[in-house]
Amino acid sequence: MTADKFLDAKGLACPMPIVRTKKAMDELEKGQILEIHTTDKGSKNDLTAWVKSGGHDLMKIEEDENLFKFWIKKG
What we know:
Mean pLDDT: 95
CATH architecture: 2-Layer Sandwich
Order of helices and strands: EHEHEE
Shape: globular
């Protein structure tokens, strides 16, 4: 999946992945996609809830050992 913007949130603990995600999403136009990489295990639940509350679409999640990848389309 091709993203319009990439956010490296590896090594950041809650709430920083959400804070950085919000800032990155503010820079995108509606319909554009943000790809996020994080190592925080809680980010899966946190980002899923944040996406729903913000009216965005969680396009895809991938897990690879301790790396979580998210693709979010701005709503």
